[in-house]
Design a protein that fits this description.
Length: about 150
């Protein structure tokens, strides 16, 4: 990623991270609406979709996803950023292994993250491409640790 791309990522990220839980909730609400079966993995799977935004565990996962991205975007451009990204995203993969989250499910979440970011930050086509590159990069770190079904490799 070149310095213009890095600057764009950091600048556009300021918008969703200003309201982290709400941004995460927007992502997760869209995710569960579009891919309802993914909700089965969560302890709040019996809560009706329309009540999720006020559910504490739902809001906790929403905020945590944003925090992982925030930590990643903060280290970008610093010395040792690649090692740090490896560490952050391997931890995400390893923590999710007992929950057996498939690659397909991660990719479904990626699709929704990109859509929510595009709308929230009014990203143009080339900015979407750069964001996609970043998410593909961190996802490759996850996918190095898991197989198709989300089990450990
Ligand atoms: C960008 C990708 C993701 C990130 C950064 C992320 C981040 C996190 C974090 C930080 C936690 C809390 C720590 C832990 O218990 O492991 C967590 C929990 C969890 N994640 Fe994810 N996650 C991601 C994708 C997914 C996907 C695709 C699913 C599947 C549908 C999923 C399902 C869960 C579940 C079921 C929990 C436990 C929630 C609870 O007990 O309340 N995650 N995630």
């Amino acid at each position: 990623m070149n310095s213009d791309e890095l600057e764009m990522i950091k600048k556009t990220w300021e918008i969703p991270v200003a309201t982290p839980t709400d941004s995460g909730a927007a992502i997760l609400t869209a995710f569960f609406n579009r891919f309802p079966s993914s909700l089965q993995k969560f302890p709040f799977h019996n809560v009706p979709l329309e009540e999720l935004p006020s559910n504490a565990r739902f809001r906790a996962h929403a905020g945590r996803i944003i925090r992982v991205f925030d930590e990643s975007i903060r280290v970008l451009g610093q010395d040792g950023d690649q090692e740090k990204l490896d560490e952050i995203w391997t931890k995400v993969a390893v923590n999710h292994i007992p929950r057996r989250i498939s690659r397909e499910s991660y990719n479904q979440l990626k699709e929704v993250i990109l859509e929510v970011l595009t709308a929230a930050c009014s990203l143009n086509e080339s900015q979407v491409e750069t964001w996609t590159k970043l998410i593909d990069h961190v996802y490759n770190i996850i996918f190095k640790a898991i197989n198709e079904d989300g089990d450990a490799i």
